[in-house]
Amino acid sequence: MIKLTIQSILQTLLWTILLGILYPLVMTIFAQLVFPYQANGSLIKDAKGNVIGSEFLAQQFTGTKYFWPRPSADGYGTTPAAGSNLGPTSATLQTNVQANAKAMRDAHSKWMHDPVNDPIPSDLVFTSASGVDPHITPEAARFQIGRVADARGLKVAEVSALVEQFVEGPQLGFLGEPRVNVLKLNLALDDKWPATKPAITPPPASLTPAAAPAAASGASTPVPAPAAASASTT
Questions:
Q1: How far is CA 60 from the centre of its chain?
Q2: Of the candidates 218, 223, 137, which has an alpha carbon nearest to the alpha carbon of residue 180?
Q3: Model confidence over 162-192: pLDDT tens digits?
Q4: Residue 205 CB-density burial (10 A; 0-12 exposed, 13-18 middle, 19+ buried)
């Protein structure tokens, strides 16, 4: 009995040291040496070195001069980051989706052939499972081109060309779908046409749903953002 107890204690100490201390330490050092950008959060910085976001976390943009990300069920907060968990029979889900669709139609009706019946990209009315999906589909980005170009006094072709530059293909050529990173695209807009560039305030270290501000907004009158809670779709 005593022998088994000692063996158990030694095994516990051994694997605690190997897997609880040495393995994490080795992987941390490896990541910092080989993938420092990814290991530190894929942070995007401005010209002064200030962190303004992560390429893998969505931020809320409500100004008409910017492309908008997917709606978020938690206000783009990261503590916690989650979907709404509303089921397909939920009346709240239906209300939120209808509100999101109306907000998109109202903001883009000028550039739609039929504002009442034209389809809206689904990722602009449904939230993602995480609530902080940084990407939208190329179709969702193209849907917003007219509004952004008009708000900035640019030609549609100019903004369209920029959008196409930021369309990312599937990973390794076959994993996933084409996508557009909203934060990168909006930063590129300001970099390419600096005359329209407002101040962008770095986000706080931890955003809570109740205190998640817009990361940047245009000088023009903001359009109400889509309803925060909707379906938890990927």
A1: 8
A2: 137
A3: 999 999 999 888 999 999 999 999 999 999 9
A4: exposed
Residue labelled with tokens 């023009």: 220
Angle ∠(77,84,123) on CA atoms, nearest 5: 85
Distances in whole angstroms, Cα of residue 146 to Cα of each of 64, 138, 150, 185: 10, 14, 6, 15
> What are the structural domain ranges in the chain?
1-40, 42-216
Token pair, residue 229, equals 């809670």
Residue 75: left (phi > 0), alpha (psi -120 to 50), or beta?
left
CA–CA gap between residue 129 and residue 234 (Å, rounded)? 5
Note the pLDDT tens digit of each residue in 67-95.
999 999 888 887 777 778 888 889 999 99
d(CA 218, CA 193): 13
Phi, psi (deg, nearest 5) at residue 135 = -110, 155
What does each C-alpha distance from 121 to 126, 141, 152, 204 come to in angstroms?
9, 9, 23, 30
Tell me, yes or no, if the pTM score tops 0.70. Answer: yes
